[in-house]
Design a protein that fits this description.
The complex is a heterodimer of chains A (166) and B (392). Chain A is α/β, with parallel strands linked by helices and 166 residues long. Chain A contains 3 helices and 9 strands. The longest helix of chain A has 12 residues. Chain A starts with a helix and ends with a strand. The chains are: A alpha/beta (166), B mainly alpha (392).
């Protein structure tokens, strides 16, 4: 059984101190903040290391933290089937939500295949680009939809295909 | 060269002998509004590209504008065949964030488990019955719906609604069980047990059915894990993984039941027949759980006149600032809700629903390459998806 502290030690030994930016012990579940450029390596290590074996990606969430905070994040909920443990990884980047360009994160599709649809969903609804996702298109909304509904500054469209929505 | 998505690569590289065929969104065998774009060579499937989203209502956006109690009816509408289980997961998450999960009276927890397991049987009956009809057996479908009707009636009696119950509330229940519910539930169990044996005779051990499902759509365990499959789909591949046992939530630690896994009795481990059989076995286990719940609800946790199922309900639900991922074992697999709260408002800042069918559906292309079109129907039916949950 490994705790968040053990996982931290494993990652520090393997990758050095710049990988983990911060940790969180406030809530019921412990979380580690990972450097955005290193997330794929960290995930691969956590999946394959015989001490951790996080072979199951439960959930991947894209988050817009709001207009004041200017931050976007991707949150990974990992669980290990052999050890029955869970860990949360967070990757946060500064990004202005009013910016035309979308925030970009690394894709973990090559670690867990299940991430593909979850990342497409985050792209579709929150407007986050995942580099190296082989099939990044809209998944739940129509291909011609404008905007990203789960953004905090999203305005409901007045018209859809020329028809007034109300 | 500009970036081409895999979809563009696949659809632009069609050989002269290949054909693109749309299965759905109105095809009855897709179990809802799902479109499967098939690249076929004659009857052989080269590639399957699922298109989802026809039933998208953006549950997460709704949840970000409503209070926790108000969102419960929306969770009902995700996996509409197992509404009780959805709201149970949601309610558990909110109660744990508030720190009141240990204050809930035992009777309430037992009623929750009882209705959840009834709903699990109902959901599995739909899966089993419609699977029969996918394969070409009409009778099991009618039998399953006939038996499910009893469950619908009982849950309607308790909650006032046939499918979308809004029965389990944060900190309690809508109402106590109606007087006489336990006896009627017992009657149903006694009626249902021989019916299940009949269903096994008619379908499970039927040679035609076995020929259509054994060795079809074999899903190896490692692939299932990597694709995030959960529930009966993962267990049929041979892994004993049931969140009711792993997380030991609610009163499941006090209840006796086994976790059925696929054994590859009729073909390879993790084939369509195994997935079907795991569901049959789970129905048997759910019956066992229901019997134990009824036993306790009628003896040590008997109904008392002054029992108020809403007594522990918080007046205002404002969890402190945190984020929490709750998961529960739904009939389809691991249902997860991820909350981010700010500690000031009654409305969560962000909610994400991790739907089991969403992840289970994703594995379809992987196990359908090179099969016949008719086998794809068998594979899709054995995954047992509910589009209300895939699209949310």
């Amino acid at each position: 059984m490994v705790s968040a502290d053990d996982i931290k030690t494993i990652l520090l030994q393997k990758f050095g101190s710049e990988v983990i930016l911060a940790e969180e012990h406030t809530g019921l579940q412990e979380a580690l903040f990972i450097h955005p450029e290193r997330i794929v390596e960290v995930c691969l290590e956590l999946r394959d290391n015989p001490k951790t074996y996080f072979d199951f990606l439960s959930c991947l969430t894209g988050v817009d933290f709001g207009v004041e905070e200017n931050k976007f994040g991707v949150i990974y909920h990992l669980s290990s089937l052999p050890y029955k443990t869970q860990i949360t990884l967070k990757v946060i980047k500064d990004h202005d939500p009013t910016d035309e360009a979308l925030p970009s994160f690394q894709s973990v599709v090559h670690v867990w295949r299940t991430a593909e649809w979850h990342e497409r969903e985050a792209f579709d609804l929150v407007g986050i680009i995942f580099e190296n996702n082989p099939d990044l298109r809209r998944i739940l909304l129509p291909d011609d939809w404008e905007g990203y509904p789960l953004r905090k500054n999203y305005k409901n469209p007045e018209y859809y295909k020329g028809i007034k929505v109300d | 060269m500009p970036f081409k998505t895999r979809y563009e690569q696949l659809t632009s590289a069609i050989e002269p002998e290949e054909m693109i065929l749309n299965m759905g969104p109105q095809h009855p065998s897709t179990h809802g509004v799902l479109r499967l774009e098939l690249i076929t060579d004659g009857e052989i499937i080269k590639e399957v590209i699922p298109h989802i989203g026809y039933l998208h209502r953006c549950f997460e956006k709704h949840a970000e504008s409503l209070t926790y109690q108000q969102t419960i009816p929306f969770t009902d509408r995700m996996d509409y065949l197992a509404s009780m289980n959805n709201s149970h997961a949601w309610v558990m998450g909110v109660e744990r964030m508030l720190g009141i999960e240990n204050e809930i009276p035992k009777r309430i927890e037992y009623i929750r488990v009882l209705v959840c397991e009834l709903n699990r049987i109902g959901s599995h009956l739909i899966a089993l019955g419609t699977y029969g009809i996918d394969i070409g057996a009409f009778t099991p479908f009618l039998w399953c719906f006939r038996d499910r009707e009893h469950i619908m009636n009982m849950l309607e009696w308790a909650s006032g609604s046939r499918m979308l119950y809004n029965y389990i509330w944060v900190g309690g229940l809508f109402y106590d069980l109606p007087v006489g519910f336990e006896d009627r539930c017992r009657e149903f169990i006694n009626y249902f047990k021989p019916k299940l044996a009949e269903l096994n005779q008619l379908l499970t051990d039927n040679q035609i059915f076995i020929s259509r499902t054994a060795n079809i759509g074999v899903l190896p365990m490692s692939l299932a894990i990597n694709y995030g499959c959960s529930g009966p789909v993962l267990r049929a591949s041979g892994l004993k993984w049931d969140l009711r046992r792993v997380d030991e939530y609610s009163v499941y630690p006090e209840l006796e039941f086994e976790i059925p896994v696929g054994k590859g009795e009729m073909g390879a481990k993790g084939d369509c027949w195994d997935r079907f059989k795991v569901r049959i076995d789970e129905v048997v286990q759910s019956i066992h759980i229901i019997e134990q719940c009824l036993e306790r609800l009628q003896k040590e946790l008997k109904r008392t006149p002054d029992f108020d199922p809403r007594a522990k309900m918080p007046k205002k639900i404002i969890p402190k600032a945190q984020d929490y991922y709750v998961r529960a074992e739904n009939p389809k697999g691991e249902l997860g809700f991820y909350f981010i709260t700010d500690g000031k408002s009654e409305i969560p800042k962000r909610v994400k629903a991790r739907a089991p069918s969403f992840s289970n559906l994703q594995v379809i292309p992987e196990i359908s390459r090179g099969v016949m079109i008719a086998d794809l129907i068998a594979i899709l039916g054995s995954i047992d998806i509910v589009l209300g949950e895939v699209d949310r």
